[in-house]
UniProtKB/TrEMBL annotation:
Domain of life: Bacteria
InterPro entries named among the record's database cross-references: Acyl_CoA_acyltransferase, GNAT_dom, YpeA/RimI_acetyltransf
Species the sequence originates in: Methylomonas rivi
UniProt protein name: GNAT family N-acetyltransferase
Segments forming domain N-acetyltransferase: 17-181
Keyword tags: Acyltransferase, Transferase
Pfam families registered for this protein in UniProt: Acetyltransf_10 (PF13673)
Length: 183
């Protein structure tokens, strides 16, 4: 892992976070393992074990994460007490002045502790520094706790998105959007 170069290290320290950009194979393995734990715990009741395993393999295996990083996604690990506590990934679209939060997951031990909101704050700071005016993401329509979290953090539901992801599965999501005020 490298020192954070796209997120202000000073801001991360002030927020009480240890955030590290993921670039090395060992860090990619850590993200993939963390994803497996978080997804199996949280999503099996929502989408079932077959779809969870399919999505982990397709989107959160070390190979898939590596391919996403090559394609321009930035992955970050969040540490608390020197242990991985969560991860997030985003892709900036400078032409549309927006940022897509592709992943934002916090281990259940640290959920409801403010870490997710701090990640949103760091993301907003990054967007402001880069002149991006909108953050967007998708969230499963049946993931009530995550939907409520995003609403509390200023996102608005802009509609349903159903996307075929292969293997006989589809992502049945809402698109959530947060407009940012220019500085």
């Amino acid at each position: 892992m490298q020192a954070i170069n796209d997120i202000s290290e000073r801001h991360a320290e002030v927020m009480g976070l240890d955030i590290r950009r993921v670039t090395e194979p060992a860090a990619i393995e850590t993200v993939s393992g963390l994803a497996g734990n978080i997804w199996r715990d949280h999503y099996m009741p929502i989408i079932g074990d077959r779809q969870v395993e399919y999505m982990l393999n397709r989107f959160q295996s070390p190979a898939a994460i590596g391919q996403q990083i090559v394609a321009g996604y930035q992955y970050f690990l969040l540490f608390r007490d020197l242990r991985p506590a969560g991860y997030f990934a985003w892709l900036a679209d400078t032409a549309n002045r927006s940022l897509h939060i592709s992943k934002l997951y916090v281990d259940k031990t640290w959920q409801r502790s403010g870490l997710g909101s701090r990640i949103i704050a760091v993301t907003e700071q990054y967007c402001q520094a880069k002149g991006l005016r909108q953050i967007w993401l998708t969230v499963n329509r049946h993931n009530r706790s995550a939907i409520d979290f995003y609403l509390r953090n200023g996102f608005l539901n802009s509609g349903e998105v159903v996307q075929d992801i292969g293997g006989g599965f589809a992502m049945d999501d809402y698109r959530m959007v947060k407009a940012l005020q220019p500085r």
